Fold:
Amino acid sequence: MKSGRVMAIVGAGHAGGRAAQTLREAGWTGGIAMIGAERHLPYERPPLSKGLLTGEREAQQCHLRSQEAWRADHIEHIVGAVQSIDARERTLQLADGRTVAYEALLLATGGHLRRLAIAGAQLDGVVGLRTLDDAAALAPRLSEQARVVVIGGGFIGLEVAASARARGCEVCVVEGAARLLGRCVPAAIAGRVQALHERNGVRIVLNACAQAIARRDDGALAVTLDSGEVLDADTVVVGIGIEPADELARATGLETGLSALPGLQPSSRGIVVNTTLQTSAAGIYAAGDVALFPSRFGAHRIRQETWHNAQTQASVAARNMLGAGEPYREAPWFWSDQYDWQLQVSGEPALGVRTIVRDVPGGAQIHFALDAGGQLVSASGFGQPQGFAKEMRLARMLVEGAAPVDAVSLANPEVKLKSLI
Ligand SMILES: Cc1cc2nc3c(=O)[nH]c(=O)nc-3n(C[C@H](O)[C@H](O)[C@H](O)COP(=O)(O)OP(=O)(O)OC[C@H]3O[C@@H](n4cnc5c(N)ncnc54)[C@H](O)[C@@H]3O)c2cc1C
Structure:
């Protein structure tokens, strides 16, 4: 590392890597230290539950860029865990004892997999999916006719289910709630996703909780549900979400908090940032899955666990580390690929009090949500990419525009969405 203070990034994941690139693009000529606990160069996670499991992608293809490109930009990748930060002295310490003095710091620490707190959760064959190493361990387990039980009907669990079916596995998804995709997708769309999985041979068990996992004498795993039913499995994939990795921020005394939608229970923790993505300490920023940031649709804060959020927040935070003072104004957006269908959600569906359904040729639908004041707050769609992707791009622009929209026109497939923007 060069002498003098560097731009430091804790977490060499998607947001960390993107921020390092942006610092150079924005003209920072000093040192950049990108410190990550994983041994890999920064990579994108979406392929982990899709192409990497079906065999259509390789690990190398997930990397943000090559080793040579990081070197050419003089961006130092340090493999190690950051243990503490001294916000007053502007230094950080790694677990191996090294100290880094920083000019400005970005926390892009992502999240930790939520663990299943039941007997047998530690057994061999009970796995989670967050990292390249997790995907490399899971992929060979998805052999033809292997029995796979997925615990959790969120988007990662369902993508694993679709990938496992593509590999010829027998798949059962167990979900504790009365519907799939509870956190982020309207119920009617979740019903369509469920029907697609069932058409593809996945068994979906709703309102069911795994109570224990045991190893049978024949080596198989036995998952006991609270109904008393026992599911046999060769592999159990636990997909019950993440907890934001905000422990370093808390130990540093930075403000962390709970996101809460108006009128709803607080839902998740995270590092509190303002509109410029700065934490409660001068010179320290946060971006990606760990950041709890002001919503552009109201006075509340939200946290997003999406590719788009990591990508766009990292760039804004990096420019602000250099003094740009740029507000982060992006509307949330994510996609999920399952079989040859795609789910996309733009905005915040939880804020909607009224839904307008628009049919899209090819069997797709887009559900627009309006808040109490009639403002468009989200568009959630499910369809096959041809035709649907273009409609959804326009729907996204409408949500991002936050302009008043005519509900009757939105519902009418004869009225082009383009004409409403
Ligand atoms: C399997 C999977 C599939 C996904 N699919 C989609 C999708 O289809 N569409 C979509 O929009 N989004 C998807 N996502 C979400 C998206 O990938 C994440 O939102 C994104 O990776 C978040 O980036 P991040 O940089 O905030 O966190 P991460 O990419 O998780 O990076 C955080 C890094 O910080 C490191 N770290 C943490 N603490 C420390 C410390 N103290 N010291 C050093 N390093 C530390 C961690 O080891 C980790 O490498 C998916 C995620 C997963 C896991």
Summary: The chain is about 25% helix and 30% strand. The domain at 6-112+243-321 is CATH 3.50.50.60 (FAD/NAD(P)-binding domain). The pocket of flavin-adenine dinucleotide is lined by residues 10-16, 35-38, 45-46, 48-49, 81-82, 108-110, 129-130, 156, 245, 248, 288-290, 305-308, 310, 334-336 (CB under 6 Å).
